Amino acid sequence: MESGADTGSETKTVQVRESPAKGAVAPPGRTRTSASDLIQDQVLMQIEPAAAIRMNQQTLTERVNELVAKIAGEQRLLLNQTEQRNIAAIIVDDMIGLGPVEQLLHDETISDVMINGPKMIYVERGGKLELTPYHFRNDAHVMHVAQRIASSVGRRVDESSPMLDARLADGSRVNVITSPLSLKGTCISIRKFAKGVMSFEKFVGLGTVSPELSRALEIAARCRLNILISGGTGSGKTTLLNALSRLIDRTERIITIEDAAELQLQQPHVLQLETRPPNIEGHGEIAQRDLVRNALRMRPDRIIVGEVRGPEAFDMMQAMNTGHNGSMSTVHANSARDALSRVENMILMANANLPVQAIRTQTASALDLIIQTERMRDGVRRVTEVVEVAGMEGSIISLGTLFTYHYQGENPDGSLRGTFERRGGRPRFLARLEYYGLAQSFLEALGTRTESTEQ
Q1: Closest Cα partner for 385 from 199, 209, 204, 201?
Q2: Cα–Cα distance between 156 and 414 in angstroms, integer?
Q3: pLDDT digits (tens, 9 = 90+) for 365-380
Q4: End-to-end distance of the chain based on CA atoms, in angstroms?
């Protein structure tokens, strides 16, 4: 950083841009300098935060631009108009946005923004992580942004309450963790809200599914199969769930239950329920299990739980077993078999005295299909396995593989090469498909060669 003046002149020459790290693209006007810090401090002294919130963005930007030009003149800082506008944009973002990362939230190629302290901001683009040249001034600056997010949802984040889950105005999901739990200071993780719902045609083009697998999943959603989507963090579970929901009939009454609303159902008759965390005094929490129980009293055709992660799994299985066919949910697990184990453990959390055999019988009766997703090392999210829940064999839930992704190698560009293998067969839920007149199409998608679906 350079800042200096000739001994015979009072005019200050200040460098307002730093060179980004090698290989990085410098975002214009987004690096912090002594000049921008000086101007920002003086602007913030002249505009009250409450007044800034009441202004619309255009009015605030015009006012800040005027102040930046005035202060630069008073301080004899040699800044051109572009540099003044860049500094003004930084100040506006700090006052009503999320500071240095505000611009990243508007980049549609970015799916996640990860702030690991003030000097290290990563994004996920195309399934891969990238370090950006953006940064905050210090940890207090990051904490200021975190506290603004917390206050917008009526909560707080500080040393006495160092964790926060919240949602931005555009629907993006936010997690904050700060000291003393985080040794890097305040860390913020933002899962951006997808502006549009992916279609299965796009999935085929991206290599997420094959045309045959796409057709099979579309039929499964139309025919009201109970579906559980399993996978790791960032493997595309919610995106796939959104795509499946597009196939739901527009006349159905759908209730969605989520910690933070991410589902984007297109049907007209959708009720979205969202959990409520405890207040500052630790009271008033409404958990997913409470919402699932309440949803059963609301005459739903389908219940969609964004993610089961606790005792609500028991109520979800009950719902699937009591006439709410076509219900869907997601779970964090590494395979279809692991997903069943996780559901079993979560049901035990709700009813510790329930026999394991009874839990497995109920789960096998409730679920029709488990879809396993994975974000692979080339950044592409793929459906790696689709299995049917075929019933019980003694004390074990029997699974039948319908599709599986078979890795074959790597292309010169680093992308993976593989095939979606079809296993054929006649699934247990074939009668349901026949009821909707789509059994033959499903068997053709599976590669089962038969002229009749009658047994």
Answers
A1: 209
A2: 44
A3: 999 999 999 999 998 9
A4: 79
